[in-house]
Specification:
By secondary structure, this protein is an alpha+beta fold. The protein has eight helices and five strands; from the N terminus they run αααββββααβααα. Strand 1 and strand 2 form a beta hairpin.
């Protein structure tokens, strides 16, 4: 009888321990599928910044036109060169000029961010576009239609929002957001999404719920990705 009572007591104690363990959160608790193991995203990361963006539905595209963001490629920084040429100089290698230091005549886009390939730039028959990472139309539908003209002009010419990329791929992107388009070059997706987040946070452009979720899925594979 004594042996039976000891066995019963030990069994009861084991059940109590298992129950307490199951109800107490610990470091081994499964995460929510975002690649962080349930831990809060680290401060300063793109993943943490996603949750600072306003989430709203997409507004109508009514009234949108490229001219709403000012004349294309103006000299916003006062260096005597248009924004397009500034970005070409920044992103191309082996740059040659048609005049002095502004108009880029030719160069090479090595390791194009969207495709991972090398693309040759020749003025007048270029296969390189300057892409708005956050498309102007996308911004228009997510807050920019309420901005003043000067803010829209700055947005359209902000180097943070501009990249020299393969033209064919850029045109397939059109005005897609992260929920509808990501670079075919998977190695660049974390950097791309982080850049979109940085731009949207800087200007207060909101995201849709689907866009936010798509951003988190991408960043789940690189939770330490920093904002540019």
């Amino acid at each position: 009888m004594l042996t039976y009572r000891r066995t019963l007591a030990a069994s009861t104690l084991a059940v109590a321990v298992l129950t307490a363990t199951a109800c107490t959160p610990g470091t081994d608790a499964p995460g929510g599928g975002d690649g962080t193991g349930g831990k809060p995203a680290a401060h300063g990361t793109a993943l943490a910044a996603v949750d600072t963006l306003t989430v709203k539905g997409r507004a109508p595209k009514t009234g949108y036109g490229r001219e709403k963001f000012g004349r294309a490629w103006v000299d916003v920084d006062g260096n005597g060169c248009g924004t397009r040429d500034d970005i070409l100089k920044r992103d191309l290698t082996g740059v040659r000029f048609t005049d002095g230091h502004c108009k880029v005549a030719s160069g090479t886009l090595t390791d194009d961010p969207y495709t991972g390939t090398t693309v040759r730039y020749v003025r007048g028959r270029s296969k390189v576009d300057i892409d708005h990472v956050v498309a102007l139309s996308d911004a228009w539908q997510k807050g920019a239609q309420k901005w003043d003209g000067e803010t829209r002009r700055r947005f359209a010419n902000d180097p943070l929002n501009l990249l020299a990329v393969d033209s064919a791929t850029n045109r397939r992107k059109s005005d897609g957001d992260a929920a509808t388009w990501l670079p075919p070059n998977r190695a660049y997706r974390c950097t791309y999404v982080a850049r979109q987040i940085a731009v949207k946070r800087k200007y207060g452009v909101w995201v849709t719920a689907g866009e936010r979720d798509a951003m988190k899925r991408v960043l789940g594979a690189c939770p330490q990705q920093k904002l540019p």
